[in-house]
Amino acid sequence: MMPASPRVHVVDDDPAMRDAVAFLLETAGFTVKVYDGAEPVLAALPELTTGCILSDIRMPGLDGLALLRRLRAGGHALPVIMMTGQGDVPLAVEAMKLGACDFIEKPFDDEVLLQAVNSALERGGPAEAEDPTLREFVRRVGTLSERERQVLDHLVAGGTSKEIGRTLDISPRTVEIYRAKLMTKTQAGNLSELVRWAVLAGLARG
């Protein structure tokens, strides 16, 4: 069970984004503590015993990946959600491999953020291989055609439709068609969800 007012630690060097996210979370009933970078979070580690961390992935000095590495190296198991910019899929994949439980792409809808935070707090960390949802995802991936699986691999590696089309010698429009088909077959709601499950299932390359 989650505490009555779960704590979310928001880490972002952009004051406007930090304040906007904090306001949204507080309005939704969360207790929020904000940090303007990774260093203040590391300094406050002894106090970070509950809740989850919501961190931007690109920050001056120590970035979100460095923060995540430090946390895990120190044995801190708080769930971490990464906020990424568009086109940061390779960074998001790396974050997931390091133990982030989720990532969301900016700009994001309020509901997407709240759902990610609630899921992180309920789960408490990365999904396990025994997770029935993960097993079902792997089963669905097995139903993809060879070309759909190729597009999936390139999507998870961070390729754009143009890049994937160039590599596979098909048009970007055809890539989009395969992408729509594989999203339907895997029942992934969006690219973030597709990447998250692919990483957890060990399907991400690199």
From TrEMBL:
Q: Residues in domain HTH luxR-type?
A: 137-202
Q: Does the keyword Transcription apply?
A: yes
Q: In this entry, which stretches build a coiled coil? A: none
**Highest rank taxon of the organism:** Bacteria
Name-wise, this protein is Transcriptional regulatory protein FixJ
4-aspartylphosphate-modified residues are D56
Q: Which PROSITE patterns match?
A: HTH_LUXR_2 (PS50043), RESPONSE_REGULATORY (PS50110)
Residue ranges of every copy of the Response regulatory domain listed in the record: 7-121
Q: State which residue ranges cross the membrane.
A: none
InterPro entries named in the record: CheY-like_superfamily, Sig_transdc_resp-reg_C-effctor, Sig_transdc_resp-reg_receiver, Tscrpt_reg_LuxR_C, WH-like_DNA-bd_sf
Keyword vocabulary terms for this entry = DNA-binding, Phosphoprotein, Transcription, Transcription regulation
- Gene name per UniProt: fixJ_2
